[in-house]
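TOPIC: backbone geometry
CONTENTS: sequence, structure tokens:
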Amino acid sequence: MLAHLILIAFQAEPSPLPPPVQLEEVEVVGRRGAAKVAPEQELVPEEIDNLGAYDIGEVIARLSERLGLQQPPVVIVNGRQVVDARNFMGFPPDALVRVETLPPQAGALYGGDPSRRVVNIVLQAAFKSRDAQAKMARPNAGGTSSVVGDARQSHIEDNNTFQLGVQASRTTSLRADERPADDRSPSAGEADTLRPEIRVASATVSATGAVGDWTTSFTGAARRQSDAFTTTTAGHVLETRQTVDSLTAAGGVSGRVLGWSLRAGMDGLIARSRQSGLTRFASRTQVLSATVSADRPVMELPTGPILVTADARYTASRSETRNATKTPTHTAQTLDLRSNVNLPILSGFSDRTRRWGDLSVNLGGRLNRQTDAGANGGLNAGFAWTPLSRLRLSAQWSQATDAPTREQRFAPLQYGPSRPVYDFRSGQAVEITPLLGGNPDLAPQTTQTTSLSASAAPFGRWGVQGNFDLQTVRASNAIGALPTLTPAVEAAFPDRIVRDAEGRLIGVDQRPINLAQSKSETLSSGLSANIPLGADANGSTRPGSIQVGISHIWRLGDSLVIRDDLPRLDQLAGDGGGVPRHQLIVKLDGRYARWGVNAVVNWKGPARLRRELGRDGPEDIRLSDLLTAGVRISMTFDAPGATREGERRRNDGFHLEVEVENLFDNRPEARLGDGRPAPGYARNAQDPLGRTLRVSISRRF
């Protein structure tokens, strides 16, 4: 595929540019909000509107899905790092001028985790709105429903921004007796909940401003979430309720000091959690963090400036959990230091190196220290090369040792809602109650990541873009959940499996563990185009367009080593987890005048879950491939007196959306290795919701 991208780029490359001409009295104005490196992909206003997102946070989430990211990207604003990007996630999408996906080496350039991608959002210089939204959803089979209400006020004036928002939602529980008995897990009790009841209420306020040459920011949020579910234990129906209250606040400043661009901030969290039912506990958590980051050019070379970044973060946390027998208290302090240097090697603006394009190299390191986990470090290196104006090649390598997070170690023990599990020992599917929480004995994880990327764009009047990314991740002492239950996994972790006196599986301890090794190799590729739809009467503007994107994930390898004395588990072959080798996603986002459409088709290939390591057998589970689709149709009604001329992005009238999720009502299916139906894969066993209808009404006031 790389060769194909290079061929396309060479075919489309224009003739070499002539030497630069020096002009007198000409002022050159840079592009507003430009990042330190040219973007790999860019969404313009039309493409942003086509996504049909409610806020910037949803735009970032949709972009992450398109890129196949395994973790959220680092978000910068108007080409610069900010103290807290959360200040901007709730703004409406039409507050954006453009969204840029930066190449992989930008993670190191902006002082963050070099394995994470960076997204640059460029905001309108002036923006003001009041928005409200109401959502209702119910599956086609009934039994449960959800309602969401949201209201917000937003304001942008250069560096001064303000937003106030409130949200409330409720999802009713889904009981087992609301689904046919022969279509669900046979071990589920009539009163057991297949999906818990969830209630959430939250309020947020954020503001940024300027004090002299410095920019300030503040964010505050309050949130309450209540969950409830019922399980049948020893013939008795027991209800479990959990409530989590949290209050967060963050503030910071940014400016320039002695040639350095400086950002400093503090944020705090107070959370309280209570559970009654299967377990009874009350916990209280306090977290305080301080961050300082800085960057500056330290030397000017003929090919450009050498850029240095430095970051420091200190975190102190304290958690206390009270239960019937004891009240343990855990405290932890961590200090994380990072630094990176970016060296421009070649430049298209230099007479000596113009023919070779742009080439930059980045080198960095980090040090992490935790009070009871010792000191750990890491290194990273990478390069980015643009041999042609429409072709970008990059590579990134990093290795780091990270202590487990506070949640991974000290989250209070609790039981989660029951779920179906296939028990290879008995050959039956049973409902188990998983034990969740932290594991204080976790050891630090060492991770090595290598990625090779290429992108080519844009081509033709449709702006065709293509990209691929080959990534290898190796981890030792890998922190993760218990692999899928098989005889080999149970033999390795017998204390994690709970059976009654008759040998029936009744519980699994799902708290995080250290695995000896893990390795994954993934090839991700994508192709997108923006297709215009007609023109107005004068032929000068387009009333709409359709953006089509195709992405493919090919898992070249996925393996685990539970312990050094045990054989490797090839998850793609079926050892320790049924992982599909291929996944294909097709998305369509379009808008024509007042109408909008968003559609997605997601296909996952077949997989296998072996009973015996290293060989297929008649008692294996063969998972069928799964095709799901969703479609959303939207329409905007003009508000009385609203002017549409020149205000295509403003939705002053009512905005109606009708969405169908899982359009074909497909559910996970499986058979045993000898062709018999697999227990635990009845129609409603793995997915009791199926096709779901959502209706949303919103308006700008």
User: Anything to note?
Assistant: The chain is about 5% helix and 55% strand.
